[in-house]
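Researcher: Structure prediction, please.
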Amino acid sequence: MTNKGRAALAVGAAARWASRATDRGEGAVIGGLVAMTLDPSILRQLGTGRRTVIVTGTNGKSTTTKMVSLALATLGAVATNAEGANMDAGLVAALAASRDAELAVLEVDEMHVPHIADALDPAVIVLLNLSRDQLDRVGEINHLERTLRACLARHPKAVVVANCDDVLVTSVAYDCPHVVWVAAGGGWAHDSVSCPRSGEVIVRERDHWYSTGADFKRPTPQWWCDPHRLFGPAGLSVPMQLSLPGAVNRGNAAQAVVAAVALGADPAAATAAVARVDEVAGRYRTVRMGDRTARILLAKNPAGWQEALSMVDKTAEAVVIAVNGRAPDGEDLSWLWDVDFEHFEGVPVVVTGERATDLAVRLGYAGVPYTSAPAIIDAILSCPQGHVEVMLNYTAFQQLNRTLRRMHG
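Model: Predicted structure follows.
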């Protein structure tokens, strides 16, 4: 660490303290931005001497990052961006907060992976999934696939933990010399009907898929899981009973364990650590609100909404769905028409959020009866007493968390 770098971190830490002291936020981003402005090389300096895992993909980054960090904590101290700030400034803040940790696990926005990987030279890169997300910011998904493929070509020494059930992820990692294939599931296939390498049709046959126009097909997985166990090379089989719901989180857990094992973790110990995760920065948690309990689910794009819908408890008294359309959400909400909202028979639905009208139109065409409420808390309190499932996109999720902090201290 240079003298300039140390000074930049000190000023950044002061900015973070000021942000917290004035109740303007956690300060991770502003602290990192200040440090980067004073020393543009600070990220590279903070990464030197560490073994770093980068976790990226359209969905599941925060969950998998937490899982990997707990699995690697069986080996020693771990620096991680648990607050979810997954761009440059947030990564600087996370690494600066744990200067002595020799291990780092970083959630990285998929658009930022190339220059982050160039700065940190990661030991492991975890590729979860790729699908359309905020076209006004991210652009077409096939362009992102080609960008990530070029990035990995610059880092041939990295171990790439890739989901072989995802066509686009497989294409990114297909030529890597050190790739570990994991059957982590691929429930969303609408963005990979054609081969990213030839443009021809992708044919799916049960768990297998292949391209009709290139020598490109689903690799044989080295790791896979079922609802009860994780399986690996040489007949490895360990129990895996997760606290988080859904098949998608079993896939996240499998890739998390594999990433930790790549850095020397014991598979059984890593799996046990991953199984303890029961919430991720407020996601999946259940809160009490008077005579109601509310479980909070976050979804941000068509694939994420489809997975979240599969987790909804249809025996709940009601389901609240909240949608905003701010810049972090993506202002174009046409993706609502790609989500299968048709299956809410017998469950009262309440719509809310800044773009509740868009959501209401979509539910109307899906034949789903609904009521509406002006705010998320109002929507929850309008539900019958008992358990309520609450589904929100990004800024609606943030709004609810701020409200709950005020209510519950």
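Model: The chain has two domains: 41-275, 286-408.
Researcher: Thanks, that helps.
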